Amino acid sequence: MRADVHPFCYEFASALLANLLRTSVAYLERNPKLAKDILTVVLNLLKEKVSTSVLWHLLLGLSHLAQHKDRLATAFEETYFSDKVADFQEQY
Fold first, then answer.
1. Which end of the chain has fewer beta carbons closer than 10 Å to its terminal beta carbon, N or C?
2. Which of 1, 75, 85, 89 is nearest to 43 (CA)?
């Protein structure tokens, strides 16, 4: 994370992202490349040193998408979602 960006910006952005993911499942279903790209970025962010609230928002967004795993199956498979979440759980 960049030191020149105020922590509130990351918290606000991650909360906004979580809300967008919660309301965008149908759109992501129609745009599988975008779904894959978003999953890739969010899963990679789990490896970064982020504040607890940012981490919470990232996990909340991923959790919501995981509830619709059947609708976004290709993106989940191509990003190795289950493996990366398992790695995160082991490291955290």
1. C
2. 85
Give the number of domains in the chain.
1
For residue 80, with 0-12 CB atoms within 10 Å meaning exposed, 13-18 middle and 19 or more buried, which class applies?
middle
- Taking CA atoms, 65 is separated from 25, 53, 55, 80, in Å, by 7, 19, 15, 14
- Enclosing domain of residue 76: 7-91
Residue 1 lies inside a defined structural domain of this protein: no
Tell me the three state secondary structure of residue 51: coil
Take residue 8 and report the two structure tokens written for it. Answer: 């509130």
Average pLDDT of 1-22? 91
Q: For residue 51, with 0-12 CB atoms within 10 Å meaning exposed, 13-18 middle and 19 or more buried, which class applies? A: middle
